[in-house]
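Z., the sequence and structure:
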Amino acid sequence: MNTTLPGRAAGAADAAGVLGASFAALCCAGTPIVLSALAAVGLSFLRKDAILWPLMLAALAIALWGFWQGARFHGTAAPLWLGSAGAAALVAGVIFVHGTPAMVLIRGGVVLLLSATAWNAWSRRACRRRQSNPHLRPT
């Protein structure tokens, strides 16, 4: 376990990446609320796969880097594995699979990524608490 505190970028990378990737994937899937929000702010041109796929892949890379940094910090690789499974499901649902199975993969991938983000944040917080209070450290 790495005992140094991660920087702010590493601490927020998983959440920011997951939100960006989820937004791009839901936009690719044609989710009405996402499409309405884009139209309301005049960004309907972002609905092109040529823009959304690279955005989603870059956001997932940032998220996975954040999960990896979290695993190095708190020593728990489970959020990284859960996030990797969610990222794979999201990519499969957006790029390779079509129709109803794609929507199942996209929604499942988003749920897995959000769960991994919450788990990673909780593990970071618990590790910080242990580092700041030596009485909480296991012997």
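Residues 11 and 121 are 8 Å apart (CA to CA). The chain has five helices and no strands.

Let me know what you think.
H.
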